[in-house]
Amino acid sequence: MTDIDRVKDRVIGSIVGLAVGDALGAPVEGWRAKQISQRFGTLSHYADAGRLPGAYTDDAQQALCILDVLLEHGRFDPEALAGKFVELAQPVEGVRERYFGAFRGTGPGFRDSVRALQRGASWRESGTLSAGNGTAMRVGPLGAFFHGGRFVDFRSAVFRSAWITHTDPRALSGALMIAYSVIHAINHGDDFHPEDYLHELYDVVRDAEKAIQRQYWDPNLGVEREACRHMSGAIERIRGWLKRDTKEAIGAISRYAQRRTTMRTHALSAFVLGSGIVSVYMFAKHFEDLENALAVAVNLGGDTDTIGAMVGTLAGALHGYSAIPARWREGLRNHDAIYARAEALAEGGGMPADVPSLREIEVSLTQKEATR
Question: Which distant-in-sequence residues (6+ apart) come within 8 Å of 148 by Cβ?
């Protein structure tokens, strides 16, 4: 491959890898590691366990919404993204109540935000005070889009993409952490070093947190000012956690997260200081092999689809689409439509004329899963 081809491969890998990781983890979301082991041994395939095998969830769906905005507008537009969320949330014939329109697996905070948008709220007013991982799980396409530069625009886009649904500073910094990790992985695929990556990531996120404090935090927000330092504080510790075995590191991440919230939480929960940090830890610890990194990640238990999506977008950005095992590519639902979009982004183009609309492909897949 030429250098240009390698970069394209990594951009495509970051997006397809996100969907692959999501689909691998989806059937065992909420399971404990012991339950996964007892049922599957090591889960490394698209399992049939309550969800349509190879089908991704709202994690990848929300990422595809961002991707479509970038392709259709040539830039990030928060109003357009809000519109995509509303469009996919419209009722779907024959779909049971546990779905949210065409969305598969949304949490209550996301539903509340989209319902506010449906009632006419601005994207600036629709978010809820949540430090969940919903902003980080979907942000991979922004990292892929901005990997060539324009950092000021990049940071603003990430913040605005998060604010539509989440107003806790940690949700913004968590999204920035994952999106910048995609940039670093794409740009350092041939010379990636975990220590250098984590050192750079800390600096970038700490600087971003200062911007979040200036631009988004205020005393009436409902969260302490110190929350604007929590993400960088965790990243700073990852270098030490890498020296421990995974079980010890997961325990340390759990303790770090629990001390920074009044709600009961742990490392594998939807709290971004848990699962977001676990995903960066897993990526850095298992950076040498995409397949192993994803397999280990989704076998941890907990919020497996989202951890899979985050590790998948990072490992895909580092190793490229060509490193994703053929059985995962071929078994991924809607693979061709996702690949066509990712390829267009990699080539700097707009939305391909011959791909079906996002609403079309997602309604069809949701109906298949809901009626199986």
Answer: none
Rounded to whole angstroms, how far apart are CA atoms 70 and 64?
Answer: 10
Phi and psi based region of residue 50 (left: phi greater than 0; alpha: psi -120 to 50; beta: remaining): left
The single-letter code of the amino acid at 215 is Q
| pLDDT means over runs of 10, the chain (372 residues) | 90 98 98 98 96 97 98 98 98 89 96 98 98 98 93 94 98 98 96 98 98 96 96 97 96 98 96 98 98 98 98 98 98 98 97 96 96 84
Query: Helices marked H in the chain — which ranges?
Result: 3-25, 33-40, 58-73, 78-88, 108-118, 134-137, 140-145, 151-163, 169-187, 194-215, 230-241, 246-258, 277-285, 290-298, 304-319, 326-331, 335-346, 358-371
Question: φ and ψ at 166, to 5 degrees?
Answer: -135, 130
Q: Say whether 355 sits in a helix, a strand or coil.
A: coil
Per-residue pLDDT at 280 = 98
Number of Cβ within a 10 Å radius of residue 207: 14
The DSSP result for 333-345, as a single string, is TTHHHHHHHHHHH
User: Cα-flanking dihedrals φ and ψ of residue 45, to 5°?
Assistant: -140, 170
Q: What does the buried/exposed string (b/e) look like for 240-259 if buried means 16 or more CB atoms within 10 Å of the residue's CB?
A: ebeeeeeeebbebbbebbbe
SS (H, E, C) 131-143: CECHHHHCCHHHH
Q: Which two tokens stand for residue 32?
A: 């404990």
d(CA 142, CA 196): 22
Measured CA to CA, the distance from residue 13 to residue 7 in angstroms comes to 10
Domains of the chain are 3-56+132-352 (1.10.4080.10)
